[in-house]
Amino acid sequence: MADITISKDRLYMLTVSALRYALGRASYIVGDTIQFISDYWKYLDAGMREVILRDLGDEIRKAEELKYKLGHDHDHNAWLRLRDELTRRREEGLRAES
C-alpha cells in the first residue's frame, strides 16, 4: 500500500464527516470509524478533538434522554467505549502539558 500525504484540515474534515455519518448506524462502518478515530486521534489538534468529543457526547446524551441506541447494542457500547477512551486520552494530554 502506498503512503499518502494529507493536510490536518483534510484529516479533520474526513474524521468529523465519518463520525457524523457512522453515529447511529448499525453496520461495519461503526467499527471502522471508531478504529480510524482512535488511530488518528494523535494527529488532531485540541480544537478538532473537542469538536469530535462534543459531537459524540451530544449524540450519546440525546440517545440516553430519548431512550434509544446508537445502532445495535454492540454499536452503542462501542461508541460509549470510544467516548471514554478519548476523554481519558484528552485528560492524560492535559496533565502532561501542565
- Sum up the overall morphology in one term: globular
Give the overall average pLDDT: 94
What is the chain-wise order of helices and strands?
HHHH
Strand pairing plus helix content: what structural class?
A: mainly alpha
- Helical region count? 4
Helicity range: over 70%
Largest sheet: number of strands, sense, barrel closure: none
Poorly predicted ranges (pLDDT <50, ≥5 residues)? Answer: none
Which terms would index this structure?
single chain, 98 residues
Please give a structural write-up.
The protein is mainly alpha-helical and 98 residues long. The protein is 76% helix and 0% strand. The chain has one domain. The longest helix has 25 residues, at 73-97. It is globular, with a radius of gyration of 14 Å. The mean pLDDT is 94.
Question: Nutshell version of this structure?
Answer:
By secondary structure, the protein is mostly helical. The protein has one domain. Helix content is 76%, strand content 0%.
Sequence-ordered SSE layout with sheet pairings:
Elements: H1 8-22, H2 28-40, H3 46-66, H4 73-97
Helix pairs in contact: 1-2, 1-3, 2-4, 3-4
